[in-house]
Amino acid sequence: MKFTAAQIAEILEGTVDGNPDTEVSKLAKIEEGTEGSLTFLSNPKYTSYIYSTNASIAIVKDDFYIEEEIDTTLIRVKDPYKAFSTLLEYYNQVKLNKSGIEQPSYISDSATYGENIYLGAFAYIGKNVKIGNDVKIYPNSYIGDNVVIGDNTVVFAGVKIYSESILGNSCVIHSGSVIGADGFGFTPDENGKYSKVPQIGNVIIEDYVDIGAGTTIDRATLGSTIIRKGVKLDNQVQIAHNVEVGENTAIAAQSGVAGSTKIGKNCLIGGQVGIAGHLTIGNKVKIQAQSGIGRNIADEDMIQGTPSFGYSDFNKSYVHFKNLPKIVERINNIEKKL
User: Fold this and answer.
1) Where would I find the UDP-3-O-[3-hydroxymyristoyl] glucosamine N-acyltransferase non-repeat region domain in this sequence (predicted)?
2) Beta-bridge mates of residue 185
């Protein structure tokens, strides 16, 4: 797939400085650019590479000043990094622009779907499923009974969406994710034997949510597990039953949230964070990687540690943690003198 400098400039609303007919068919880092590739210059630290790169086209800031001879065709834009991201998104849309229903696949007679959908081979669509327009469901995916999927949502290969789940518009669900599996509900008797508590709720995923590969979101015991608009979940994240994750919150890989915890809006949660159940995490909270959360967190707190405590307090305490052997030795010497 080839694009000319003129075509790219039109997409990015930029201007061409050089040959508008220059063609590219791949993307590259500026220091690794080869003939036929497109790159960008955003960080001034890499400016020297603009004069040595072999990339055919480079996206630069609109006020970039050329100090040496340059062979690369430039596309001048207001924000090169944002422009390159826009181009990546456009390229991805073109690359993934599949449509039609491949065979073998199964669609229940009671299921309905909109225009321009893609259904990959060996996909299963259950009873009373409702699928919107421009939805892409890749091979080997399972869509259970009574599931609703909004417009422009992409479900990659091997995803399992259990019955009654509701997905909004423009969501992306990556391979291996499981949406709507049973919550972890068991009751022990006097002999320690566990009886399963039926999980009869569902999962609701609102618009513009991205879910990474291998992530699991459990259905509620009663009611709904809710992932609000704009949430971003990394790979291998566990969201338990009846959890609610607020708008535009991002959770990094290998983190787990236990049942019935409510997480606020615009939170940033690092990798391998463990959050206990029945807690309330406020808005704009930042939790550092590998923290263990066992208490409620107020709005805009920054947290680190296991058990977690205030970020600045953690850093102050860590200085003493590192010096603990020396401190103990000093105390022992003082005790001997006494």
Assistant:
1) 21-89
2) none
**Host domain of residue 240:** 105-314
Give me the tens of pLDDT residue by residue for the chain, a chain 338 residues long: 789 999 999 999 999 999 999 999 999 999 999 999 999 999 999 999 999 999 999 999 999 999 999 989 999 999 999 998 898 888 887 778 889 999 999 999 999 999 999 999 999 999 999 999 999 999 999 999 999 999 999 999 999 999 999 999 999 999 999 999 999 999 998 888 999 999 999 999 999 999 999 999 999 999 999 999 999 999 999 999 999 999 999 999 999 999 999 999 999 999 999 999 999 999 999 999 999 999 999 999 999 988 777 888 888 888 888 888 888 888 898 888 87
Q: How far is CA 195 from CA 1, 186, 191, 201, 217, in A?
A: 57, 5, 11, 18, 22
Q: How far apart are the C-alpha atoms of 142 and 173, rounded to whole Å?
A: 12
Catalytic positions: 241
Half-sphere exposure for 72 (CA within 13 Å, toward CB): 28
Q: How do beta strands 154-155 and 3-4 pair?
A: unpaired
Contact 36, 26 (CB under 8 A): yes
pTM: 0.82
Same domain for 270 and 171, yes or no, is: yes
Q: Tell whether 163 and 58 lie within a shared domain.
A: no
For position 45, which CATH number holds? 3.40.1390.10
Terminal CA-to-CA distance of the chain, rounded, Å?
82
Report the length, in residues, of the chain.
338
207 in a domain, yes or no? yes
Buried b (16+ CB within 10 A) or exposed e, 102-127: eeebebeeebebeeebbbbebbbbbe
